Write the structure tokens for this entry.
Amino acid sequence: MKILQYILIFFATSPLVFSSLSAQQIGKNIKGSFVLQNATIHTVTKGNLTGSVLIEDGRISAVGAVTTPSSAHIVDCSGLHIYPGLIDGGTTLGLTEVSSVSLTDDSDEIGDFTPHVQSLTAVNPNSVAIPVTRVNGITTVITKPTGGLFPGTASLINLVGYTPDQMYAGFKAVMLNFPSSSKRNRWDRRSKEDRKKEGGKAVKKLNDIWKKAKLHADLISKGQKTEYNPDLDALVSVVRGQTPLMIEANKKDDILAAIKWVRKNKVKAILSGCSEGFRVVDSLAAAGLPVITGPMMTMPPRGSDRYDRAYSNAGIMSNGGVKVVIRSNQSENVRNLPFEAGFAAAYGMGKEEALKAVTINAAEVFGLGDQLGSIEVGKVANIIVTDGDPFETKTQVKHIFINGWQVPTESRHTLLYDEFIERSPGLDK
Amino acid sequence: MRMKVWVNLGLLIMILFPYSSVYSQDAPGEVTRTYAITGVHIITSPGTMIKNGTVIIKDGLIHNVGRSVSIPADAQVIKADTMYMYAGFIDGLSHIGVPKPKEEERARDKDPGNPTNKRAGITPEKSAADVLSAGHKSISEYRAVGYTAAHSAPYGRMLPGQGSVILLDGKNAADLLYKADISNYGQLLGGQGVFPSTVIAVITKYRELYRQSQQANTHITNYKRNGVGMKRPTYDVATIGLIPLTKKQTTLFMSAPNHLDIHRAMALQKDLGFKMALANVKSGYRMADRLKRSNIPVLLSLDLFKEEKEKKDDKKKDDKKKGDKDDKKKELNEWDKEIEAFTKRKKEEQNNIVGQAAAFAKKGVRFAFSTDGTSAKSILGNIRRMIKAGLSESDALAALTTNPAQILGVSQTMGSIQNGKIANLFISKTPIFDEKAKIKYVFVDGNLHEYEEKKKGDKKKSGKVSEENKAYVGIWEYSINAGGEILTGELEINQNEEGTLEGTLSGAQLDSTVEIDEITVDGNKLSFTADADGITISWKGSIDGESMSGEVNAAPMGIFPITATRTSGPDKI
Amino acid sequence: MKFIIKIFILLFIPISLSAQESGNILIKNGTVLTITNGVLKNTDVLIQNGKIQQIGPNLRASSNTKTIDATGQYVMPGIIDAHSHIGIDAVNEATNPVTAEVNVGDAINPMAVSIYRALAGGVSVSHAMHGSANAIGGQCETIKHRYGTWDPEEIRMKGAPRTIKFALGENPMRVHGERRGLQPKTRMGVEQIFRSAFSEAKRYMDAQKMHKQSMGNKSYKGIAPKYNERLEVLADILRGEIIVHCHSYRADEIYMLLQVLEDFGITKICFQHVNEGFKVAPELAAYGAGASVFADWWAYKFEVYYSTAYNATILTRNGVLTSINSDSGELIRHLYHEAAKTQRYGGLSDNEALKLITINPAKQLGIGNRVGSLEVGKDGDVAIFSAHPLSVYTIPQMTIVDGIIRFDVENDDNDMRLAIDPEEEMSSFFDHQNEKNHDKCMEGVAEQLFQFSAHNH
């Protein structure tokens, strides 16, 4: 009898049974001190070593040889690998739930000039896609508004928490879709001349806006009162070089124009997209601007391009001296980020650089090089434990820590698997 | 004031229009219908020439041709020394003389899966002969470049109707008509939002219609023989209209611009067994062997891609290179190399297309030309491009005269300069395929049209925008609210040399900038139609100073509100 | 490959490579993933006249046979995509809820560069499908990726069974119901579209039969039932001559169609997408229905919100014949990677995962006896990879179709297009990074319904 009781207690506390008993619900996050014991630690910045990692107060407090505090949860990581949580440099995660149901899509506000709208306020912390994403080892993402010339302000968020404040990871950028003369999509039938004309008009509009933004910031700096312009207010810190502009430019000519514009206006900028970065590597490298690119798994930009141009683009830029961050540019399938990095690695970037592109490079580009992106003492405890190379398709993520919280490796997808792998009832009536 | 403007305009037209015909119904009638053209080099048929000969035209026919021909006393003598005479060109397939029908305003289709045949573009019973317009401008335009006869079909979609051979001269439709309903005109073109809307549905519809026609034919025949106790046949006009095709009494002229269309048309023909000719073929060079084997006649489109001006670009490129710094030279060089490779492939394709007539001639494919909507002005230039690409002049001439006559079944009476044939011919000062050939006289059905050469000093003057047109002329930036989607673009209205309005419409939703038609103005109202990628849209706007509002009917999508602002007007032009 | 194309272009040879062209190739010393007969290390594969003639160590071949050294590389059967829309000029005849008579095989475009790009992902056969706008869409075409020809007949996989597209759920409901106010607007209505169509076809068949039988009777004055292409095709489905491939997402609608098919005696059925197939896996298995799924697409519309990336695993474990498809000109380029995702989501074995893109889709298309595994007598369709094809780091090296190399990474070049626009200034740039890539099944619908609206999900 007593044995039976013991068994019951054992199973009730075992995570496996827990999840099947509470089907369709994801377990709770756990806070505390954790020792991740006996793993191969991929620090990213300081090589690989065998040992343990200690997490205390949400931070990494020791790496390698660790003295285990008595209160710490011990996580046996023998035979497993520790990596910093992966960072996605561009998503609409939490903004778009079901893309075809427009009222569940908060990524694209009406208007061409809306730099003041904040992705952080509209992120749904309970989006079903968030657990789906983090179980693949992505702990932190940029979530960004889209559409229009100035779509809004993007934020870096950690994939744990129930309020924007709990999720916010300490970086914002104002988005700019650099005016383009390229075709919007394959149904865009504007002639080349018409496209150029419209592109030119948009550049003029951008310059007009920028002139006003500078004046606005200038007057504010001088303590002058200005008219109520919340959109221009959002650009004050950009004009002052405190907040970067994240500039989306993809076509060769557009990238070059964007570089020129940045140089002329002396803004702090991060380029994103750069589908044709491979065509202007030297210019990108000379400009010294970091690039957030992806996905790799997309079509080559031109019908006449080599089939693997999109796969190899990140590697060509990185090998050419550009600091590259990889993004999925996805909402529900941000989980594919490790595979995007894997493809980049295979097609010229190399595994080491690809790993940096989804960890330390991202952290540095977002000004958080001392906070995120590697396994180092003092950094935020965004850590994943895997049974192998995190980019390799069959690898399993065994443990996830975000902001020091141990997050269950569960999502709606795993819960449905648990329920339906052996459906009950099966064929019986 | 108003009167005066029009008079002035009239003068302007006479001065500015270099090759206007002197034949007009307002002029006195002809004194005689007998003509003697003397001293002329007569190209009687492709490859055969009589030097310094004489041709007698009498009662609309070629009466006599030769070196020593006696000139009738009643003849008007035309001295055409050192000039060249050719048989009039025959257009293999066109819409010459057929006014483009106005797109009917219609509500959104309630049941697009079951449209009427008419709505679906299936009207094989229609006849071009019923809609011919003797005064249509296309007749004089094509005549001015040597065309004297054409195979004209109605406008439409999948089965627009039956084509007729017409003469490009006449006071009324009956004058024009030479041989009615010699063909069915077909396209692999769907019915704009109703079944069949895609090429796959159009093909299956051909199969079904054809077999239903065969069935109907059997039924009607049996019923005629003994209808007692038999369900009566229903007379569906489309089904009945195709019966002559199923009995191989007519030929289906299938429009097939590229080789895939040709392949599809040939597969259909093989399946059903009707008589077929291929028309409007732009890029069919890959099919030369197969066409030769099948002996299916082909009408090559005279609508060639635009020739590029190269020199300007090259210069620009050089300038660009000089200005760039060393660190970017590499990437620029790479890009130049890519453009070079791309251009090379494009050139190859261009050569294939311009050279296809020559290749067809070499292979022995039966072919002629169809104007396919090519503007009359560019036809001779396009033929010269083909000649430059290897087409012999006599093959070119054959494709414009004897071959179309044969394909259309009118070679007994047209296509060459022989006694007894219809007096369809033209006279050019120099050989017609010469760079600067000028047509001086055209005879259609024995009627003379004379073209005057532009005199030196009659330079084009850009006409000042008339007061009447000032309200409309300019560039209008428009936006269309298409069910929430905002489409923007430019409407450009100009006044041409004749003082009438013309214009273009551009925008993201259009393939390219399109010319607008049927411009009508009435006070502050401006309306026009345009062919937007196969859909005729009609625009109705009211102008208030520099702004315009109204609606655009883009059936079958619906009617959408428009607004437009004039960004540059006549005063700024 | 490049060689063939270049010659072809340079000489403007106006004749095509002869139909069903085949070649001789000996692939030496690779790790051969046969699919049906295990993994054979250091093994050769000999293809003669386009067919696999021998598999074994140290094979020899005649002098006219090209030899490829695959040491250190992985040799697998050409990948098969059971759901794509490449190589055809029309996808959706979205004007009517039933368009069984249309056939995308009438509009094959062998010059689509997407075919080459699929080859560059090891794919040798794809199922070019009609779209999903209609409950009963059009007939589909199984094509072989013999890229390099301009002749549509040459990429047709001759002898492959006829197939047809059905569609359930949101797409037909939106196109016909929501936008036009015509049935079906609900899943209830979708069911009745099928029942009505098949009932009508049965009547048509009966009337034809009656007419035929009465013809001999001299006093018979009846006339043949009016010829109807649509009913002819529906009758062929009832006769079992056409395999049904049904676009579907939700468990309830999948179950509904099984009931309808059972009532009309139709047994050949493969569900496509079938995101909630995992919920009715036992029923699918019991009916003998196939399932061709996405590896991980979900949440792009409401009917796929309750999906799981473990779908393929659950279906496989429940005994359903399962494949992974692309439905996309992009995804088709890395189906090997899509298949590998079943190892992350459910832990399928290497061979189980590879079957999802080889023999299983082949069976679903009714061509399992000709392609889908490396076996003597089968077509010489082979894909060679630098590393194990399920590794994220693998790179396709070569794709062979009927013994002819159609993709070779060593001889790959810029600009492999066959169709050139004589007026295009430079190959157009497209912003693919910011393009949503789902539901190509609805291709063409937007343009047809509303010329101006952009992409439709």
Chain B touches chain C through 62 residues (CB under 8 Å). The CA atoms of residues 113 and 195 of chain B lie 5 Å apart. Confidence is low (pLDDT under 50) at residues 1-24, 311-324, 456-462 of chain B.
